[in-house]
Write a structure and sequence with these properties.
2 copies of one chain form a homodimer. In chain A, 65% of the residues lie in helices and 0% in strands. In chain A, helix 2 crosses helix 10, helix 3 packs across helix 7 and helix 3 packs across helix 11.
Chain lengths: 370, 370
């Protein structure tokens, strides 16, 4: 599809940000995606020196895929509907698949750091994690970030004093979580590798390659003002936030997040759902701002802080669930189960703390259609 | 010892509150003590109808004993030193011994309520406690407050729906805590009964009976201004508060209280000590105010709130320790241990919440020598 140029003297579009800007944004993100893909192919699966680059490349791939997908959603009426409907789920599949390994890795890191904090250990965080995870990284997955000097060698072995900072329960809980989450991460790694070699992936990559030069705008899109669609995204966000229990969240220590912490319900935290939803809507809102500002969006600190709080909310929620799940492992020692209970409650309080942080940040923020 | 009367025209004492006021306060508290003792003897150990009165009487005994003991401490230079040094430890022994049963009872109540809250149960609190505790109160101790309609009869049996609100782990944890704390409470009850029948107790009661008519002031006490001693008590309080980590406490969700939650140290919470100390100093300060105002001390809401926060701090700290202690019971099921871990962490967060509440109340409060 050829790019259409506007007459800047057209009063209907003078000063307005139009579909042209959307096309430019999508082309730029598609180019980023292709660059990340090239880098990933050059570094993926090879020596340890390239592992960090491979992680960066996978992150950049996800980053662009998320932005393209979000723009397809927010500005749907301006894009060829068949193409959009075909492309968006594929991008979501890709960023989901590529993100899982990292999610398991950071979940394990979060839980091991919490176990050390709860044990009153004063170790350097990276070392604490390296220590607890040492010994099981003989076959370090490509996208693992190895802590310096801790790549499975004897430098990573804990000293007796360091071991002494963990109770038997905390140490066993850490080992159990490590086994379970490392297994999950390894599986996610294989799945991601398979995905990147699949014909499904090649089809997505081809679509994005086309997007880098030709954006399938509708005929009227180049002269259509983007603001109403961006405003609608902002409105969906504010509506969702208005439905959150923000008054409660603004009262510290409201003890809401741990209610149902011992519930017999297998998925006891439906209360997290609306917050996860706001996290996604906030991201859509932020990306819409990027489209309108042509990549020069001014940094909105409260919005950024609010988004970080919701990321933390999601991470803590999933870490708490992983601790609860590990506690259901058959035949564990009571001391292990006790440590996992403390850990679960600790992460649920992190959930509550993140809601408080979101509430505080949001007070400073007024959503304006960008 | 004869009461000495002041010349109100003496410029040294005009307008000042002197040892006379201390004597009046001690006489009044001693009278309260004797009245409570008489009531306790009339109601103690008898039928269930008198149980509530017996509880009230024991509480009133402790209330007066605390106030007399505190005044002996704060205004020590105005009282016969031999008599003070002999009397004060005996009053402390008495209020400590009488308080233990109530402490175990309310600790169990706190923990069972928390278990129900953590299970997402929406039961009426009194019933929740009555339910969990039903069946083990066949020999209800005299000072047990029975929930209406729940005194071990079938009305107190939980319905299936109510049982369903607890997981196996939570239910077993509740039963374990109930066994342990009921045993401790029963022992405390026996100890209190023995104490009340002991010659040691009769000696204290005799001392208090004398105090009701004759306060052993030093010769100069009746003309001595009480303010400097009360101010010194206030200063000890402010000094102790200044040493508390109030900046941290004022940041919600600082996660300080649960640090060492999994520490191998058998007494992992020395951080609670300074707060317990402030709780005692705050009480001394409050009672000194009562002495100076002759029982007409105006209600100082922030001070009262601060004191309540420290009571809650102490209760949650001890409840958390009881949960951790129960988790060390041999051969418990992992699900029980898990529930106790969640419960321990929950109570440690209550500790943190109480510190936050204290910090908030204290900001509104300026200590003046009363």
């Amino acid at each position: 599809m050829a790019q259409q140029h506007l007459d800047p003297t057209d009063p209907a579009t003078a000063g307005a940000v139009t579909g042209q800007a959307l096309a430019a944004y999508l082309r730029a993100q598609a180019t980023q995606f292709l660059r990340a893909l090239r880098l990933h192919r050059e570094t993926g699966g090879s020596s340890a020196g390239d592992a960090a680059e491979s992680v960066d490349a996978a992150r950049a791939l996800r980053r662009s895929a998320r932005r393209i997908s979000a723009s397809l959603h927010t500005f749907r009426p301006l894009l060829d509907p068949d193409w959009s409907e075909e492309t968006r789920p594929e991008l979501a599949w890709l960023s989901g698949t590529l993100g899982l390994e990292h999610a398991y890795e950071s979940r394990l890191e979060r839980l091991l750091l919490a176990l050390h904090r709860l044990s009153g250990a004063t170790m350097f965080p990276a070392r604490a994690v390296g220590m607890a995870a040492a010994g099981s990284r003989a076959t370090a997955p490509v996208t693992m970030k190895a802590a310096p000097g801790n790549a499975g060698g004897p430098a990573g072995s804990p000293t007796t004093a360091e071991r002494g900072t963990l109770t038997v329960g905390a140490a066993k809980a850490g080992a159990l979580l490590e086994r379970q989450l490392t297994l999950a991460r390894t599986r996610a790694h294989s799945t991601a590798l398979q995905a990147l070699g699949s014909s499904r992936f090649h089809a997505v990559a081809d679509k994005v390659a086309v997007l880098a030069s030709e954006v399938p705008l509708t005929p009227s899109a180049p002269t259509t003002d983007l603001s109403p669609l961006a405003a609608a995204a902002a409105e969906r966000l504010t509506d969702a936030i208005a439905a959150l229990p923000l008054v409660t969240a603004g009262h510290p220590y409201n003890a809401e997040a741990l209610v149902h912490g011992l519930s017999p319900d297998p998925s006891p935290h439906p209360q997290d759902g609306p917050w996860h939803q706001v996290r996604l809507l906030l991201r859509l809102h932020r990306y819409a701002g990027e489209v309108l500002c042509g990549g020069n969006a001014p940094v909105n600190v409260p919005l950024l802080t609010a988004g970080q709080a919701l990321n933390r909310h999601r991470d803590a929620s999933e870490a708490a669930a992983a601790a609860a799940q590990a506690a259901r492992t058959p035949r564990i020692a009571p001391a292990t189960a006790y440590a996992l209970g403390v850990l679960h409650a600790d992460q649920r309080h992190e959930v509550e703390a993140a809601r408080f942080a979101f509430q505080q940040a949001w007070r400073k923020q007024t959503v304006n259609a960008p």
